[in-house]
Amino acid sequence: MKENKTAMNAQLPESPQLDMMRQLRDAFTGFILHYEFAIDEVMTKINVLQSEFEHMHEYSPIEHVTSRLKSVESIIAKVQRRGGPTSLSGIRETVRDIAGVRVVCSFIADAYKIADALTQQQDVTVLEIKDYIKNPKPNGYRSLHLLIEVPVFLSSGPVDVPVEVQIRTIAMDFWASLEHKIYYKFESEIPEALLAGLHEAAVTAGQLDVQMEQIHNEVTKLRPARPRYSTLASDQEIEFPSPAELRRLLDLND
Above 70 in pLDDT, residue 183? Predict the structure, then answer.
């Protein structure tokens, strides 16, 4: 009897509502995957730059890199607040920070160096640049925001996906992290005295960035320049040393 009941249930047609919900779920899953893949693309680019700086230059300007993907709830809430279209194409145009990558660097000049190295790549399209380092927000927030677009290569063909890249110094990141925690604790209703204190702390962090960069530049001037490595063209011929000479060179580099 139980087997017959199960067979009858299996033969029942699905309701239109259930079918629509399944289609919506599948469409949104694919939509979010595009942004996950785009984050992977940008993270790979930045990791390559970081590795190059570590091995080929005086120092690496990149301290660490993180990424984040907005949750479905956050995306829907933002669309509702803005009153934008609810189609997937409309969401892509309205919510531009679904995918985010944050790069924390050593000095202010490094933020622009990283931005230039990233945006000059052929498959990166710059959609917008907001320079909150030169023009801080009223609360003191400082960071360099890049809205870029990168191609994600799917089985059905390439899809251009926007990614927000935030580049900031250690001091800027420290201030922004604490400011976010304070806002969360007070549910965005922060007393005026604390707002003034946060702004003063942002100014102090900015002064620290300037001072540390000046010290770094002075140290660089005093220190003898290390030989830079050059990248050889793929068709350029090189002459290898003898095995004995090669071992001697390797011993010198240890």
Answer: yes
Indicate whether 201 belongs to any domain: no
Which structure tokens are listed for 87?
């189609």
Token pair recorded at residue 249 = 């060179």
pTM of the shown model: 0.77
Is 220 inside a domain boundary? no
Q: Quote the pLDDT of residue 48.
A: 94
For residue 71, give the CATH number of its domain.
3.30.460.10
Spell 226-247 as b/e; 16+ CB within 10 A means b: eeeeeeeeeeeeeeeeeeeeee
Mean pLDDT, residues 83-107 taken together: 86
Distances (CA, A) of 154 to 17, 37, 46, 174: 30, 9, 21, 37
Catalytic residue among 54, 164, 213, 218: 164
Q: How many domains does the chain have?
A: 1
List, as one string, the DSSP characters of 146-174: EEEEEEEEETTEEEEEEEEEEEEEHHHHH
Domain presence at residue 51: yes
Residue 140 CA from chain centroid, whole number: 21
Which run of H or of E encompasses 248?
Answer: helix 243-253
Instruction: Establish whether 164 is a catalytic residue.
Output: yes
